[in-house]
Amino acid sequence: MKTTPQPTAPLRIVIIGGGVAGALVAAQLLPLAPDGTIITVIERGSPIGRGVAYNTHSRSHLLNVPVERMGAHPDDPGHFLRWVRERLGRPGCPDAVSPGDFLPRHLYGEYIAYVLLEARQAASPAVAFAVRTGEAVDVAEREGADGARVVLADGTELAADRVVLAIGNLPGEYPVRSGRQVYRSRRYVHTPWAPDAVAGIGPDADVVIAGQGLTASDITLELVAQGHRGRIVCISRRGLRHKAHAPGPGHHDFLKDEPAPHTLLALLRRVRAEVRAAAARGIPWTDVVDALRPHSHRLWQALDWTERARFLRHLRPYWEIHRHRLAPQIDAQLSALAAQGRLEFIAARFIHVEETAGGLAVTIHRRRAPADETLFVAKFINCTGPRSDYSKYQHPLLINLLARGLIDHDPLALGAAALPTGQLLRHRNGPIPWLYTLGSPLKGVLWESTAVPEIRAQARVIARELLGPVTASPQDPS
Ligand SMILES: Cc1cc2nc3c(=O)[nH]c(=O)nc-3n(C[C@H](O)[C@H](O)[C@H](O)COP(=O)(O)OP(=O)(O)OC[C@H]3O[C@@H](n4cnc5c(N)ncnc54)[C@H](O)[C@@H]3O)c2cc1C
Asked: Distance from the CA of 320 to the center of ligand 1, in angstroms?
């Protein structure tokens, strides 16, 4: 295997992005880094380790993975559970915890900050670590292609021998093509993760949400928590709803000794057969889906790009609702709201939106309906999920990386062209020895690449690769 050449002088590593991914790369690097190493994390605003998912103070925002599986270290998934148990009853911590509990995301942000602190204490005093507040806007390759200059918006330049792009989730696409002037209105919320996303919405105001996923659930429950009584309408192409986690006995690793199918149809048939066989033994489908997780990268990589495109066209929405499930208490709250008629999931597409004297007129076309209909609401919140096509996101960092040929799309524009270890591929010209990424940008290469169980495994692989030869695969065993 080709390994990254190591510089002879002390290594300078710059990590762009201080969400969970950036924090975990730093936490993996610190205890291993040789004396003299300088590690800098550049983060535009959020406290280190929080990113978009864990920078929330809402108690209704829960993790969608049980506490027993959210540990920050790939070989110790139970670490978070033990950390919580040591703090029971303290402010922000529960009084009791069980392994299957879904805890507030805010607490998880605190945990990641603790993990980083622990790693700093384990590092040699001769290893320098700093978090720098700023916006990275450019990465310019050094002559000789053995490193780069990272440029910040204020003009500061940092020399780097290795750069990690831990830039995470890009803001979503604009959901309606007709009526784009509404995007300048205060009645439209483009970034649902912003702390003030539901601020100023009256208790009886009707709200339209574009999307029906986990972020739409967050927004709905936050509205309810602030006393909202109006109607909330979630609009998505198919009107599907995410399923809930259900405790089951667990299913055996049925794919362990099987080769991965090369077609989507063969894979679907195999999973369906297993769901039927498990059901006959009283094991729910949820356990079968969970048993796929350790194989998700292998399954994705066995499909060629045509088969992957087929998956996106036909199966993606169904995969999302079965795989990324809701905490049971969140599901129960949403079901109660739906039963009261306060929450609706509609299968429709947006036709037009415009601001009126008293609010917004949102025209939709319901699936199979004969005509359009118009909803009159006070607020429109975009929860369509992060975008992945870098060329459509007008951020100077991505514009510059694209222009310099340092980042390229995978063929389906799901993320960046990269090796499974996170090393980025130069536009039409092979791996870049000093540039890595992890998390969402690896979606095209690995598909499941956004949640902590994947990110912690990738962080370890990248840390080892940055510091020396690596042979491990980024797949998490849990
Ligand atoms: C609402 C929500 C809930 C989730 N819940 C869970 C869950 O319960 N369990 C789970 O496992 N996963 C969950 N996820 C998945 C989640 O994506 C990951 O767990 C994790 O947050 C991804 O971290 P990240 O660091 O890759 O990205 P992000 O969280 O997006 O962090 C990227 C960071 O980089 C910074 N940044 C980006 N560009 C620049 C730049 N140019 N200069 C400086 N800074 C920059 C941003 O400010 C940000 O802080 C959730 C995701 C969302 C959106």
From this structure: 18
